[in-house]
Amino acid sequence: MPVGLFRVCLLVITAIVNHPLFFPKENGTVPENTEEIIQKMKEREESLRLEQLRLEQEIADQEATQKALEKAAVVVEESKEEKVRWDMWTALSMVIFLLIELWRQDFQEGNWQDVGGEEDDMAVLGKAFKGVALPDKAVLASFYEKRILGTTGDMARMREMVEGFADDLLEALRSVCNRDADMEVEDCMGVGSMYENWRVRKPFVCDLIVPFAPPEPYCFRCQTWCSGDSFPPDEQGYGTIKVCRADEDVTGCICDKTKLGEDMLCLLHSQVSSTRPSSEMEDLLCFKNTQYLDADQVMKWFQIAVTKAWNRISHKYEFDLSFSLLDSPGALKIKFKSGKSIAFNLTPVVQYENSDVYFISHFPRSSLAADIPSSTHWFLTFAVYERRFIQLVSKTLPANACHVSCLQILSFLHGKQCSLTGPSGLTNYHLKTVLLHLLQARPSQDWAPEKLEARLQDMLKFLEKCLHEKKLYHFFIGNGKVPAELGFPIIFQRAEPLNLFRPFVLRRDIYRKMVDTFHEMLRNMSALINEYTVHIPLAHTNGIRKEPL
Q1: Into how many domains does the chain fold?
Q2: Where does 106-237 show beta strands of DSSP type E?
Q3: Could you tell me which residue ranges the Mab-21-like HhH/H2TH-like domain spans (predicted)?
Q4: Which DSSP string corresponds to 457-497?
Q5: Residue 217: is the preceding peptide bond cis (ω within 30°)?
Q6: Is the confidence at residue 324, as pLDDT, over 90?
């Protein structure tokens, strides 16, 4: 009983003690702890949300970077494919270009001079001839007989007189020169229109070339643009002349082409023979501090030597001799007491190896070498071979062939036109080059005297074509059809054809003037010929149609 009562009392006390309202202060803090926990949970939730946003941003950035990398890879791949395609097109273009170049060279070697063999080719030319009528055969024959032949009758006597005096002058020149130190002068040769019998314009001027060589033990070693050495395009047709000792082997030793070290010595050439004083080279007419022959030095030496030679023999002649042009070394003029005068050119040249090709120092009265790169560059002249070719072809032509008459008439008309409108870039050498091409292209029977009018038209049409294309190739350079009888050097036959009109490609003002002068000459041709033609009976002129100016 007491134990049960004790248990009841203990239960009551325990219930009272554990009642929530028994300790109000302690149980009052429960709500406050709940709000703090809720606040912390909210803060934690916010931090988790921000972390989630950060992670999402990083994932987005990674995805954007991945896309950029993929896009860059695609661009690189496309560029590689484009490069491959570009390389393929480049290679294909190069192959096509090489094929065209090979075909062009084959065509030039075989056909570049077949310019007048077919009448169909001539028919498509001559646009400037529309409305222009040449005088008929009777007028041309009368013009040629009275105007051309009447002014060229004294050429033979003049050539004989000039050649005799030039031989005497050169003999005196040899006597006044020091044979051990000065250049050795050889006999002169006549070239050009006076010796090819087609010069028509007065005053008549004889062109003589005088080969010269250095004193022993020296010799000339010539280098041309087509001999394998590198020459820029504007120096085609030129060459250099090196003064060497005859015992030097400049082609077999590299000591002259490369700079050896200070501690190296050539076993073939001693230092004494490889290095020469500058004054010695200048005495040999070389450019300063070089071994290359200087055209200006040659000009000064030749003028002084000619002056000394004339002073020695002047007492033998009853006329005076003077230099007529300051820029030409041998432009001389004979003045008689009666007032008459005779002009001739005595020009020093250097022979190319054992041929009749010559390096010429200056071109008298010509624009062929107006822009020489330097005084150590010499232009090559083929005048001797041109004269021989005309003589060789003339033997196969009919009697009284019209080839020289065509050149004379065209030269006369061009000169008259230049006297009216001023000089142009077109020269008599260009006209002669046209004739040389047609002489090779046309059969011999086409140059019969009765075909003068047709051949004159061919020359004019061919010249017009060349002016339109700005291409007139040198007759000998690159021409594989040169007759073997001439003995022409093979190195020039295998060379790239030389365009005589190349200087006019960049000088448009001169080219425009040249074309205008040519067209004016065509329009004025009938008037110029009729002006210098004596009266012809009406029966011969019924078919003439004059071109108004």
Answers
A1: 1
A2: 184-185, 189-191, 205-213, 218-224
A3: 404-477
A4: HHHHHHHHHHHHHT--B-SSTT-TT--GGG---HHHHSSPP
A5: yes
A6: no
Q: Which residues of 407-446 are buried (b: 16+ CB within 10 A; e: fewer)?
A: bbbbbbbbebbbeeeeebbbbbbbbbbbbbbbbbbbeeeb
Q: How confident is the model at residue 82 (pLDDT cuts 50, 70, 90)?
A: low
CA 92 → CA 21, 81, 84, 101, distances in Å?
Answer: 104, 16, 12, 14
The domain that holds 187 is classified in CATH as 3.30.460.90
Residue closest to 250 by CA, chosen among 273, 272, 221, 228: 221
- Residue 499 is given by DSSP the state B
| Cα 95 from Cα 326, distance rounded (Å) | 53
What does the DSSP 8-state code read for residue 201?
S
How much is the average pLDDT of 183-189? 92
Bridge partners, 56 (sequence order) = none
Instruction: Please give the C-alpha separations between residue 200 and each of 167, 385, 393, 419, 522, in angstroms, as whole numbers.
Output: 25, 22, 21, 14, 19
Q: Are strands 319-323 and 238-245 parallel, antiparallel or unpaired?
A: unpaired
Lowest mean pLDDT among 55-69, 160-174, 207-221, 461-475: 55-69
Q: Please, are residues 208 and 345 in contact by the beta-carbon 8 Å criterion?
A: yes
User: What is the domain range of residue 234?
Assistant: 123-248+281-534
In a domain, 232, yes or no: yes
- CA atoms of 437 and 443, how far apart (whole Å): 12
Arithmetic mean of pLDDT over the chain:
79
Contacts of 445 (CB under 8 A, 6+ apart): 398
Say what the pTM is.
0.71
Cα–Cα distance for residue pair 198/187, rounded to 1 Å: 24
The string of pLDDT tens digits covering residues 94-146 is 778 777 766 655 554 444 444 444 343 344 345 555 556 677 778 888 888 87
The pLDDT of residue 369 is 43
Q: Tell me the pLDDT band of 248, cut-offs 50, 70 and 90.
A: low
139: left (phi over 0), alpha (psi -120 to 50) or beta: alpha
* 482 neighbors 493 (Cβ within 8 angstroms): yes
Whether 364 contacts 396, CB under 8 Å: no
Whether residue 264 lies inside any domain: the answer is no
Cα–Cα distance between 374 and 150 in angstroms, integer? 43
DSSP 48-104: HHHHHHHHHHHHHHHHHHHHHHHHHHHHHHHHHHHHHHHHHHHHHHHHHHHHHHHHH
The neighbour count for residue 137, using CB atoms within 10 Å, is 16
For the stretch 342-378, pLDDT in tens is 999 999 999 999 999 999 987 765 544 446 668 898 9
Q: How confident is the model at residue 188 (pLDDT cuts 50, 70, 90)?
A: very high
Distance from C-alpha of 258 to C-alpha of 261, rounded to nearest angstrom: 10
Instruction: Indicate whether 148 belongs to any domain.
Output: yes
**Would you state the pLDDT for residue 539?**
40
Query: Is residue 110 a part of any domain in this protein?
Result: no
User: What does the alpha-carbon distance between residue 360 and residue 298 come to, in Å, rounded to a whole number?
Assistant: 11
The predicted pLDDT at position 51 comes to 84
